[in-house]
Design a protein that fits this description.
Length: about 270
């Protein structure tokens, strides 16, 4: 089983399209270490740590190290702003796949959508150090297509090809804005991309040749993920609505977790 673990709803950026869990408070490290052992016991093989911004969670490095000790693959999705050349060992030494959230190389667009004008440049400056210290790390980029950046995809493709692919970019994942929860749900009418616009992007990039793989994901892609929320609930989305499979994972024993998952259709173990 593969999971995405949203450790915290906190973030140091303010992306207008974000669908993080605004109403859930994060658990402390000891509780999450308990959950991690239970996830191992039910057959979890890979965990992608996300947020909010996961590097704002105290102990995310310890959780990723414990994944390594348990034989679970640890991946990280980050906006990159808290990474520096001096803390790479702390955060990346146990990471198999590193995914940066980049929605545009354009400083004006990044300022407009809430990432900050220097977002892209900061990541570019980090990449040589990451490449040198962790040459085998799998590097990916996530881009969310909204009304604000939908006309920027060609510019983004050119920037990735000329400035990022040199550092071993394996995949560019283009995802349609999804109003699942939080601010995203409130701003659906402002940010949603018309069907014809997204279909044009999908047609243009699904079979485009590049030095890296390109994956274009529509709204139903969110249903592929099993999520652990900040407060320790296992969730799944269906028809753009999210529901809980297992609540309060830390309080359930392994057999009860397995029973609840099987009750939900046995889709995950």
């Amino acid at each position: 089983m593969k999971l995405c673990w949203n450790l915290t709803a906190l973030c140091n950026e303010n992306c207008v399209y974000c669908f993080r869990e605004l109403l859930e408070r994060p658990l402390d490290l000891e509780d999450n270490l308990t959950i991690l052992k239970k996830l191992k016991a039910i057959g979890t093989t890979s965990i992608t740590f996300a947020g909010g911004e996961p590097l704002l969670y105290p102990g995310v490095d310890i959780l990723m190290r414990e994944c390594h000790n348990l034989g679970i693959t640890a991946n990280l999705i980050t906006n990159g702003s808290l990474l520096t050349k001096d803390n790479l060992d702390m955060y990346l030494s146990n990471v198999t796949k590193l995914t940066f959230s980049i929605d545009s190389p354009n400083s004006f667009i990044n300022e407009t959508i809430g990432r900050g004008a220097h977002h892209y440049e900061h990541i570019k400056k980090l990449l040589p150090y990451i490449k040198e210290k962790y040459p085998n790390i799998i590097l990916e980029v996530n881009t969310v297509v909204t009304y604000d950046n939908s006309e920027e995809m060609d510019f983004m493709f050119e920037a990735l090809g000329s400035e990022i692919s040199f550092y071993g970019l394996k995949k560019w994942k283009i995802s349609r804005f999804c109003p699942l929860r939080g601010y995203a749900k409130e701003r659906k009418n402002l940010l949603s991309v018309p069907d014809q616009v997204f279909e044009s992007i999908k047609d243009n990039y699904s079979n485009k040749r590049a030095f890296f793989q390109i994956q274009v994901r529509d709204l139903d892609a969110v249903e592929e993920n099993v999520i652990i929320s900040p407060s320790g609930n296992m969730k799944k989305a269906f028809n753009q609505e999210e529901y809980t499979i297992v609540s309060d994972l830390g309080t359930k024993d392994t057999e009860e977790i397995k029973r609840l998952i099987r009750k939900d259709g046995g889709l995950y173990v």
